[in-house]
Amino acid sequence: MYKVIKLRSFTRGFSSFEHFWMPFTHNRAFKNDPKLFTAAKNQFYYLEDGSEILDGISGLWCSNLGHSHPIIVDAVKKQLDRLDYASCFNIGHDLPFLLADEILSTLPRRHFSQVNINKLNLLEIMR
Questions:
Q1: β-strand pairing of 37-41 with 52-54
Q2: Residue 103: per-residue pLDDT
Q3: How many Cα atoms sit within 13 Å of 47 on the Cβ side?
Q4: Which residue, 44, 65, 94, 110, is most buried by CB atoms nearer than 10 A?
Q5: How far is CA 13 from CA 2, 4, 6, 23, 29, in A?
Q6: What distance in Å separates the CA atoms of residue 107 and residue 113, rounded to the nearest whole number?
Q7: DSSP per position, the chain
Q8: What residue ranges define each of the domains in the chain, with the CATH number in brackets?
Q9: Closest of 24, 17, 20 to residue 60, by C-alpha
Q10: What is the rounded distance in angstroms from the CA atom of residue 43 to the CA atom of residue 51?
């Protein structure tokens, strides 16, 4: 059984900023003036004081579709109940093949016959 950890005040919820190194961040500057989110909903992050911040970051290698959107939350829960992760190295499952069919159905067949979506493929497609 997994323990559910509820959000609490970040400033009271951990002992030190020194125990976690933040990638792509000037850590010393952050630790001197930390900006900490406590929650997210739709297109906004929320600070401890309730202030909304529009999420225009999109994360690394992510497409921002908003936070906690019920359709996405339900789809993720449904998938996690079925299969949380499976490698595609020498064994497979149906979902990548279904997604490949769907992607290929939107592309001109004379240029595309297989799909392997990764950063390099996306850069080629966007050219």
A1: unpaired
A2: 80
A3: 8
A4: 44
A5: 19, 15, 10, 21, 21
A6: 9
A7: -PPPPPP--HHHH-S-STT-PPTTS-HHHHHHS---EEEEEBTEEEETT--EEE-----TT-----BS-HHHHHHHHHHHHH-S----SS---HHHHHHHHHHHTTS-TTT-S----SHHHHHHHH-
A8: 10-84 (3.90.1150.10), 86-127 (no CATH)
A9: 24
A10: 13
**Residue closest to 46 by CA, chosen among 54, 37, 34:** 37
What tokens does 72 get?
A: 């996405």
Q: For residue range 56-106, list pLDDT tens digits in order.
A: 876 666 666 778 888 989 999 998 999 888 877 778 888 878 887 888 888
Distance from C-alpha of 61 to C-alpha of 57, rounded to nearest angstrom:
11
Instruction: Answer yes or no: pTM beyond 0.70.
Output: no
Contact 44, 57 (CB under 8 A): no
Q: How many CB atoms lie within 10 A of CB 71?
A: 9
